[in-house]
Amino acid sequence: MLLPYAPSSVAVARQRLCSDLQEWGVYETAIDDAVLVVSELLSNALRHAHPLPSGQIRVAWRWTDGHVEVAVSDGGAATEPRAGRPTLSSLGGRGLGIVEYLAAKWGVRHDGEITTVWAVVTTISTVSNGNGQVSIPEIALRECG
Predict the structure, then answer these.
(1) Contact predicate 16/1, CB 8 Å
(2) Cβ distance 31 to 16 under 8 Å?
């Protein structure tokens, strides 16, 4: 979806992603992770990159095979997106580190002057136990470190 190149687009994208994932039956914790990832990717693009030639920014997502892939496309920047290692007293620089932690994988694609930063978040499958839905975590715990 194309959104205005404006901070208000972050909330719009979060709400739409959350609504879609709920409709698709994705487990709530995975929704929270995917929404946080799209927030970070979109916020980084708005802060560090140029808009697309249309003056907008593109946000996309899809849910397949137990994964949600989110992607944000912009008009590129002077620097390549990368996860930083800020000091404890730094006020910023943690966005892609958060994405790196929450996502199974993430990366950057270039298509001419368009840069797309994408991430894949593992979701939780639901299966029926005969009495209703039971959630089975694909990743129950990820160690910090």
Answers:
(1) yes
(2) no
